[in-house]
Amino acid sequence: MRRHHRPLILGVAVTVGMLTATVIPSAAAPAADRTSPKPTVVLVHGAFADASGWSGVVARLKKAGYPVVAPANPLRGLQADAGYLASLLGTIDGPKIVVGHSYGGAVVTEAAASVPEVKALVYVAAFMPDKGEVLGELANRFPGSELNPALEALPDGAGHPDVAIKPDKFHDVFAGDLPRSQTSVLAVSQRPVSLAAFQSTAQAAAWRTIPSWFMVATGDKTISPALERFQAKRAGSHTVEVDSSHVVMMSHPDKVTALIKSAAKSTR
């Protein structure tokens, strides 16, 4: 397993239960893999969530011998979040597979463009903007999303308004294939996202030069499945479809892990 640099310490707010940007040590790799180390897998969460949503995927990747990093996405705006992620990626030695869920896909798209050792991008029910696109406009390009009417603005005194999903809409719009006992907790512990995240213009599109894989969630009500298919086709991504809600990494961690491993093996 490759050596990592010292942990990156950044002044970002920490939410209880959130995984921080700390390398999770992998299990010892089989002897056959020691001459060709596995790439580090970086899992980037999206809005209304935190890195704990990747827990099932993290466990499976570790068991398979992959080094894993699951950072806390600040959710403060596309350029700010992409800058944070690019800085983090710069502290990780060797090849990297970068995975984005939901809004995290947009962050990955911009951040990875400036990091030469990113060998593959994996999008999980995600935004995948091109350079010059505004995320909010991209989200509205195809019908099928029920997110906008489910959002509520949060009180803000700093001039940087945040939005969150109304708790009574969270299950149906965001995570309909998880138990309600679980989504009721997720709804009240969700991390709001800055409205600026959906108003800024993408400055780079890493998928234009880096191979990509895409998982379409056919039951997604947060991001339109039609938009997911459009983005994947536009990028020439290796694409799979799963009958799932938006949180496919939580309801189908085996399938998400398999897609990540496929990307990693194809780029070694």
Automatic annotation (TrEMBL):
InterPro entries: AB_hydrolase_1 (IPR000073), AB_hydrolase_fold (IPR029058), Sec-Metab_Biosynth_Hydrolase (IPR052897). Residues 1-28 form the signal peptide. The keyword Nucleotide-binding does not apply. Pfam families: Abhydrolase_6 (PF12697). The keyword Signal applies. Keywords: Hydrolase, Signal. Residues 41-258 form the AB hydrolase-1 domain. GO terms for molecular function: hydrolase activity. It comes from the Bacteria. This is Alpha/beta hydrolase. It comes from Streptomyces gottesmaniae.
